[in-house]
Amino acid sequence: MRLLLVVIFHFGYLICFSQSNLTVSFKPYNAGVPLTFNSNLPNLSGENYSISILYYYISDIHIIHDGGQDLNLSDTVLIVKNETNLLDFGIQPVTTIEQINFGVGVPQALNHLDISTYPIDHPLSYQVPSMQWGWTSGYNQVGIVGKDDVDHDGIPEVDFELFPLDDHLYKNISLPVSATSVNDSVEIKIHTNLDQWIKQINLGSNGILHGSTGSNVTLMDNTLNFPVFTTENSADISKLTNEDGKLFYTQLGNIIEVNWAEFQNASTYKVITITGQELMNGQILQNKGNVQISNLSNGNYWFIVLSKDGNQLNKLRIIK
């Protein structure tokens, strides 16, 4: 009996303290397919643009795993650069991943320190192009450089830059994840959907914009309002080729009101969790209207508008 108890204890110990090599990838996507740098890309309106540089900081990382445990990696600040997007956290006590929380940008506590004190290979050290504008201004949270096809000849020719800069543009993201260790390794695969990130930004008239106004505000707000970051198991939800209408929501207490306008072929809507579970649905009888949603738990949801034949016309990410 004592031997049996010892065996059970050690088996339970091994389960509770399983070790896996943990990696997180932030792979760039556009229109649901892997992004190719310096090549023609369609935006959500079908117009061409190209990207030569995509840099952004990731920080304040928390991995929720194995029944709600929090692997706190908040002391780490990392930078994603073009194809350099695999973050390796080494051996960690995780088996099944349930959620990842992270910040986009450099948090205020680290945003105004002396850049010269960091080793040359540190993410907060000097970058090309420069991602830090001195102690007072701090770091650019994101850096995007590219060209837009203004004359619609299929070849992007007008330069644009988006470099958001300011503490208040730092954004926190929470993503449900379904990932389990295989052969002592587990990877959280995140798609960075650039077509969603630049949504509602006129790249052709943007020009070179460094700072905390205009399109830079829109860019960072898009990380919360649209599916800029999706995990691979739910990434198909972000695919949208022909967008129709406009969607936005407001929250007052426990009530979320979703408003729609300018739809031509809308028939129904549905509210689903980020993993695809349908919570409610209803009819859309007019091309402008609203619906109130109550009793949603804190989390991430999709409000999806469908046509009569079941095609997805538009979608809105709701964060409560």
Structural description of this entry:
With 320 residues, this protein is mainly β. Strands 3, 4, 5, 6, 8, 9, 10, 11 and 13 form a nine-stranded mixed β-sheet that branches. Strands 1, 2, 7, 12 and 14 form a five-stranded mixed β-sheet that branches. A four-stranded antiparallel β-sheet has the order 18-17-20-21, with no helix packed on it. A hairpin with a 4-residue loop joins strand 20 and strand 21. The longest helix has 15 residues. It is globular.
Our estimate of the beta-strand percent is over 45%
The 3D shape can be described as: globular
Radius of gyration: 22 Å
> In whole angstroms, how far apart are the ends?
51 Å
How is the main sheet built? 9 strands, mixed
Q: What is the number of helices?
A: 5
Structural class: mainly beta
Mean pLDDT: 85
What is the percent of helical residues? 10-25%
**H/E series:** HEEEEEEEEHEEEEHHEHEEEEEEEE
Would you count the extended β strands for me? 21
Taking pLDDT < 50 over at least 5 consecutive residues as the criterion, the unreliable ranges are: 1-16, 235-242
Topology summary:
Blueprint: H1 2-16, E1 20-30, E2 33-34, E3 41-42, E4 48-65, E5 69-73, E6 78-81, E7 86-92, E8 96-104, H2 134-137, E9 142-148, E10 158-164, E11 171-180, E12 185-193, H3 194-197, H4 203-206, E13 208-211, H5 215-225, E14 229-231, E15 246-252, E16 255-261, E17 266-273, E18 278-283, E19 289-294, E20 300-307, E21 312-319
Parallel strand pairs: 1-12, 10-13
Antiparallel strand pairs: 1-2, 1-7, 3-4, 4-5, 4-6, 4-8, 4-9, 8-11, 9-10, 12-14, 15-16, 16-19, 17-18, 17-20, 20-21
